[in-house]
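From the pipeline queue, job 12 of 40. The input is one protein chain; the requested action is below.

Action: predict structure.
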Amino acid sequence: MTPQDAFPPDYATSRERFRRAAIRLNWLHEAHAIAQAGPGGEALSIDVARADARDADTTLIVSSGLHGVEGFFGAAVQLALMDDFATIRARAARPRIVFVHALNPYGFAWRRRVNEDNVDLNRNFLLTGEPYGGSPAGYAALDPLLNPSRAGNSAIGFYLQAALHVARNGMPALKQSVAAGQYDFPRGLFYGGAGPAQTTRILHEHLPRWVAGTRRVVHIDLHSGLGRWATYRLLLDAPITSEQRLALHMWCSKETLVETEGDAAEYSVRGGMGRWAATLAADYTLLVAEFGTYHPLRVLAGMRAENHAHHWSTLDSAGTQQAKAWLTELFCPASPQWRNSVLTQAVDLVHRALAALSEPRVRRA
């Protein structure tokens, strides 16, 4: 499979290829439907393929498409890996493997980053007792810029005002105000929702079952759009122990690991899947694998344009289709060089994680 072949043209094709690959590997398959339909009226589902080694005491999870349109990249990695497992790299003994395809099938199918309720799913996993309410300091003042009315959608105006904000307050402050997760503006960006979304409820019900009986879980959640072009970082949005940190350093470089809590964090996120997942097992490490594309202001401008088109225009308008095409490019560039590079890096990352999980846990002397 070439890098270009791995990238699916749409959600429906991606899901069909994922299901065929699971059959080819003789993996267990399950599909969890959501209530919405795709652009062609097709059913939408979160699909799971599992190499369920019964005696395995470690589990590797690779998930894609939590931010819908990022599923073009994430699914390509999963499909390339499954092709890999069926050929020269297949091994008889390995940890339990769980691949979760299209955590946000609606966003993937309709080329949105968010779900059917405009919810950023990586802001929706609030812990028990945490309210679905509130916004970061500064978000309310920025909402008219991020979610403009029909008369306020000038891209040039956005760049000028965003650049002025960065000049006055710095990029970290803008990231914290905009991207940390807000719960007061349902049409705005990075909206965390008014309650658990369909995806959140499905994972609450089934993820504990997928990891049951294993002592150690490494979960790689594939993302794109954040960071330098064709490079990646592994974001940890939940605290980890010194032992977990040491284990990670055995198979991934310290330079790629970014902890998003504490004094060194660029910004912290509310409702991230990592904090919730860490409650499922004593040794559960979720890595948000972010593969970089374009400058953050350009990505934010594309998100703003697609969000504006979704709320203020019609689906079949030229402006909406242009906004969706731009959003797709921002999160899954058509560049063959980008695709070849990120696919190679992501596949290698997963194989290194598998190798590490196949070895006994390294402990401090």
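Job complete. The first strand starts at residue 28 and ends at 37.
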